[in-house]
Structures are given as structure tokens and as C-alpha cells.
Specification:
By secondary structure, the chain is of the alpha/beta class. It folds into two domains: 39-337 and 437-472, Alkaline Phosphatase, subunit A; 364-432, no CATH class. The protein has 19 helices and 14 strands. Strands 5-6-4-3-7-1-8-13-2-14 form a ten-stranded mixed beta sheet, sandwiched between helices. A two-stranded antiparallel ribbon has the order 9-12. Strands 10-11 form a two-stranded antiparallel sheet. Helix 2 packs across helix 13 and helix 4 (104-113) runs parallel beside helix 19. The relative contact order is 0.19. The structure holds zinc ion. Zinc ion binds next to helix 12.
Length: 475
């Protein structure tokens, strides 16, 4: 796996244009937009794009990475330079009912259910009352509904659009609710909550979904064989979260078996858009958040770039279906990433920032090569090979000693690996993290299409639900 041939190939993919050669969709926004994107009136469809865990520093890192290493731009930035689109843009306050700093389930529930709720719940208020999630309202109006994510499909953000649960970790229950509530398209990870051998109640949800008319998908190739009249899809491509995009670059087997997010979205759209009454689709780039929890800039960057391709797809779809409202935002910041100036007059910043191209494997995967007891010289070699970070002998000795106490978080991987490497990332890449936790940032939100004119320049997360319901004429 670490042969020179693979390394050169990987280096080319990492430093090359960020559209993978084997992916079919356009990386650029269409150049010619239809004039006067309608921001008033009612929408038939909604595409709600969420990148999980993006503070301004994360957006800046991805933006500058493309500017500095490829003389290219994020689709997100291209959007902001399309005056014909009639794009509305604001900042959003991200708090939950019980904290300035939200978790993903309370954040998603605020959009999904229209009320702020306590952290760790899914559409259940402080007083125990359940709100009606957006996808349930859409279904009542006859619309098709869909959830697409790089996380387990039962994870907090998708759940907030369709489920009610006192505890976000009750993912077996959330999977069952998707069936009962007839969410038409479910694409992401999380097989373990559908499999009778792994569910606590032993129920075979795969069987139950099939009986309810869902087409099961298991591998990337299955996306190419979805019949034209398909109305329901259950596609799960990992037991838990989908592998990091950065690791897809390094492992051809992952590229072969696991679809990128944009392909999942491209599969969902034609299935959902067959419904006369329209559809509501939520698409989540979930693992920017996970990588940020792990303070892993390479994994976060590539997750972001992978998500960014969905913006081009949404733009293209909306141009062909102008009765579609698109919302693009994030739920909160994670890790507090910031690019910090390096050197006298900050003049070394651009040079060291280029070292981001040397991150070739996620910390999650790299940690497999760093079991407890790994000797210092090996620690040095492994980290240098996969991140490009240069460790002194003393650094390596310190990290080898700390590895003995490494905690591995089930959801977010080896969060402390990033903590070990923080000073080196700051010096050698200009990348700084404040913590492994969520942050209370005001964040970007923008919208285009019918109803987007209702987006004020400052909005609270729960108000987005009401804006969307008004645009779609949902009760
Ligand atoms: Zn998080």
C-alpha cells in the first residue's frame, strides 16, 4: 500500500484538480445562468445542503488551498460571484436551547423542527414535547423526501430532518422511524442500525425496507443500476460513517466500493424529482466535523472539497428546475481552526501553508499504524510519511510516550493524535486549532431560488425552518 508507485499516484491526485478522474460531475458552476434567479414566490422542491462543522477558518482553509495550490476556486466562492443568481446571504446564530454551543442534533432539529431544543436530543423540546420534522411535513404535502450523508444515515444531522428521539444515540429507533415515516431516499453509511445481527431488537430492517418497496444498494457500482422508475432507495455503503475522502485518494479499493457524496446526491435527485408534488432533500458533508474533532486538517480539507462539488450539482439542478429552493449552510464550527501568520511579517505563511498538500491519510487511518508501544523512530516515519510533518527526535519520543495513553473516540477517531501534533501543524502549515470541541460561531448561510428572498442578513437557526415551510407552503 505504501509502494512508491502508489505514493506518486496519490501525490498527483492530491495536488491535481480536485475533481476525481473517475467522478462524472462538473467541478465548476455553469458559466451562463438564467437571468434573474427568482427569489420570490413558492418553491416546489428544496435542496438543503449542510456541511457539518464549518467555521470561517475552515472555509478559508479550503478556499486558500485551491487558490494557492491550484489557482482554482471553491464552488461556494463562485456562487458568491454570480450576480444573476439573486443569491441571498446572511450570518446565522447557531445556539441550542441550553447552550451557546450547539451539538449537531439540536442544530439540525432547529432547522428540522423549528424550535431550539437541548443538546443531544432530536426534535424533542425541553418540556418533552415533540416537534414535527420537516420531512414529515413534506410527506404530508405529498412530496418525496430524501436524506444523503457521509455519516451514518441515522446520525444527528439527517435525523434532525425526519426523526424524534430523546437521545441522538438511539439510532436503531431513528432507522425504524425512517421506515415508518417513508423517507423515500436514504443514502449514506450506518448499515449497523439496519442489520438484525447488530440491532438491539434483532429486527431485519433491510427486509422491512425491501417489503416497503425500497431498492437496496450496497456498493458504488449499484448506483449505476438504479432502474428509471425507482421511487425508493436504501443505499448504505459502510457499517458506520463513510471513509474519509482523503483516504479514498490513497486506497483504490475504497474508491471502487464507496461512492463520493456528490454521486449519492446525483443518484437521489432524479428519483425524488419524479414526484409531481416535488421533494425535500437534505445533503450533508458530515465528516468535516469529525475531522475537525480530531484536529485533522488533511481529512477536513478533503471532506470539504468533496462536499463543495455538491454545490455545483445543486446549482445545475436548480437552473434546470427553477422551482427549487436551495439552502447552503453549516450547523456550527468545530475545533476553531484558523490560519495563523507564520514568520516575520507573516511572510512564511504561504510557503508553509503549501505543506497541506502533504497530508495523504486521515489520522483515523494513520492511527492503525501507530499502536501502543510503537517505538519513537517508527512514530516519526509514519507521521512524516502520511502528513509530511517533520518531527524532531524529541517530538517523536514524546509522542511515542503519549501514544500509550491514546484514547480512541468511537465516532471521531483518535482525537488526541491531532492534539499531539498541534504545535507542529501551527509551525509547519500555519494551521491552528483551539480545541476538539464545537464552537459558538456565527456561520455562513445562503439561499437561492423561490423563497430565498425571505432570508434576512442575520437569522437564528430555528427561523430557517419557518422560512422553508413558507417557501414550500408546508403547514
Ligand atoms: Zn461534531
Amino acid at each position: 500500500m505504501a509502494s512508491t508507485a502508489v505514493s506518486e499516484d496519490v501525490a498527483r491526485e492530491v495536488t491535481g484538480r480536485y475533481a476525481w478522474a473517475d467522478d462524472r460531475l462538473p467541478e465548476r458552476c455553469p458559466l451562463h445562468l438564467s437571468p434573474g434567479g427568482l427569489s420570490q414566490g413558492f418553491a416546489r422542491n428544496l435542496i438543503f445542503l449542510v456541511v457539518d462543522g464549518m467555521n470561517a477558518g475552515m472555509l478559508t482553509m479550503a478556499h486558500q488551498y485551491l487558490q494557492q495550490t491550484q489557482d482554482s476556486s471553491l464552488n461556494w466562492m463562485r456562487l458568491y460571484r454570480q450576480p444573476q443568481l439573486g443569491l441571498a446571504r446572511g450570518v446565522m446564530e447557531t445556539a441550542s436551547a441550553d447552550s451557546i454551543v450547539t451539538d449537531s442534533s439540536a442544530a439540525s432539529s432547529s432547522w428540522g423542527g423549528g424550535e431550539r431544543i437541548p443538546n443531544t436530543r432530536v426534535n424533542v423540546c425541553a418540556d418533552g414535547r415533540e416537534t414535527t420534522p420537516l420531512l414529515v411535513k413534506a410527506k404530508q404535502a405529498g412530496k418525496a423526501t430524501g436524506l444523503v450523508s457521509t455519516a451514518r444515515i441515522t446520525h444527528a444531522t439527517p435525523a434532525g430532518f425526519a426523526a424524534n428521539a430523546l437521545d441522538r444515540d438511539d439510532e436503531d429507533r431513528i432507522a425504524r422511524q425512517y421506515l415508518e415515516r417513508e423517507v423515500d431516499v436514504l443514502l449514506g453509511g450506518g448499515r449497523r442500525h439496519f442489520d438484525p445481527a447488530q440491532r438491539e431488537d434483532g429486527r431485519d430492517l433491510w427486509r422491512d425496507f425491501r417489503r416497503a418497496g425500497y431498492l437496496p444498494l450496497h456498493q458504488r457500482v449499484d448506483l449505476e443500476h438504479v432502474p428509471h422508475d425507482t421511487q425508493r432507495l436504501l443505499g448504505l455503503f459502510d457499517e458506520s460513517h463513510l471513509p474519509y475522502s482523503l483516504d479514498r485518494l490513497d486506497f483504490p479499493e475504497l474508491r471502487r466500493t464507496v461512492p463520493p457524496l456528490v454521486d449519492l446526491m446525483a443518484t437521489a435527485l432524479p428519483v425524488l424529482s419524479r414526484r409531481e408534488e416535488g421533494f425535500v432533500l437534505q445533503v450533508e458533508g458530515a465528516r468535516v466535523d469529525h475531522a475537525a474533532h480530531a484536529n485533522d486538517p488533511g481529512a477536513a480539507l478533503w471532506e470539504f472539497l468533496s462536499f463543495d462539488r455538491c454545490i455545483a450539482l445543486a446549482l445545475d439542478f436548480q437552473q434546470r428546475h427553477p422551482d427549487t429552493l436551495v439552502i447552503l449552510t453549516t450547523d456550527h464550527g468545530t475545533g476553531g481552526l484558523q490560519i495563523g501568520g507564520v514568520g516575520a511579517g507573516y511572510r512564511d505563511t504561504n510557503r508553509v501553508f503549501q505543506n497541506l498538500t502533504r497530508f495523504q491519510r486521515s489520522f483515523e487511518l494513520m492511527a492503525r499504524d501507530l499502536p501502543q508501544g510503537t517505538p519513537a523512530p517508527r512514530v516519526q516515519t509514519v507521521i512524516q510519511r502520511h502528513t509530511g510533518l517533520e518531527l524532531t527526535d524529541a517530538d517523536a519520543e514524546r509522542l511515542a510516550a503519549e501514544l500509550a495513553h491514546l484514547e480512541r473516540d468511537a465516532d471521531y477517531g483518535p482525537t488526541r493524535t491531532g492534539s499531539f501534533l498541534k504545535p507542529l501543524m501551527a509551525e509547519q502549515c500555519g494551521i491552528n486549532w483551539i480545541s476538539n470541541q464545537h464552537t459558538g460561531d456565527l456561520v455562513e448561510i445562503c439561499a437561492w431560488g423561490p423563497g430565498s428572498g425571505g432570508l434576512p442578513q442575520f437569522i437564528r437557526n430555528w427561523e430557517v425552518h419557518h422560512l422553508v415551510c413558507e417557501a414550500l407552503r408546508l403547514a
